[in-house]
Amino acid sequence: MSDFTDGLNWYDLYRHVYPDNGDRKFGVSIVDGVAKHYKKGMTMKEYTPWAKHIQNSKSADAVMNDYLSDYVNNASMREALHIPSFAPSWEQCSSKIDYHLQREGSLWIYKVLKGSGIRMLFYSGDTDGAVPLAGTRKWLKSLNWPIIEKWRPWWTEGQTSGFVVRYDGIDFVTVKGVGHMAPQWARQPVTEMISNWIAGNPI
């Protein structure tokens, strides 16, 4: 199995894996005369150390989002986004937060939010191999919340953009042909989907 999946982009199974270009460890941008240092992207091995069982040398060492790191940390881009000069540089995953696993996961929070009357939307790209659609559907089903609106397609400009199902407490939407970073690769569909949901309009 490992040989067959060698080199896959686990976060977006339809997308290429771009090799390390050799100059990716750290970048710097000058903001108001101050050097802002940042890490250029992350390898899959760094991003999900708990998924070693599906990583091999080709995919695990490939760098993701180094170009995004350069773009977001660019001084002119920071200015356009009104990011104050005292704010730190952007990293794909903050090195200042101690991420860790917990046995119970986050399933409990959805019941708390529903009990508080908070509307919830959960969306997922359907080519995400790291946080797969099948797993999300399984834990949503385990909530045992009644289905208000059955599984159906949703569209953007006449094209199928994914599927949606509404439970009593949470709306679940899939985004077609994209993975973990659905808003990055399906900008228009995801923007329209979220905007409609916030406004209380049908997706």
Q: What's the order of the H and E elements? A: EEEHHEHHHEHEEEHH
- Overall pLDDT, averaged? 83
* Distance N to C terminus: 38 Å
Helix content: 25-40%
What is the number of domains? 2
Explain the overall architecture.
By secondary structure, the chain is an alpha+beta fold. The protein has two domains: about 1-100, no CATH class; about 105-200, Rossmann fold (3-Layer(aba) Sandwich), CATH 3.40.50.11320. The chain has helices spanning about 45, 55-60, 65-75, 75-80, 105-115, 135-140, 180-185, 185-200, and strands at about 25-30, 35-40, 40-45, 65, 120-125, 145-155, 160-165, 170-175. A four-stranded mixed β-sheet has the order 5-8-7-6, covered by helices on one side. A two-stranded antiparallel sheet has the order 1-2. Strand 6 and strand 7 form a beta hairpin. The protein is globular and about 55 Å long. The mean pLDDT is about 85.
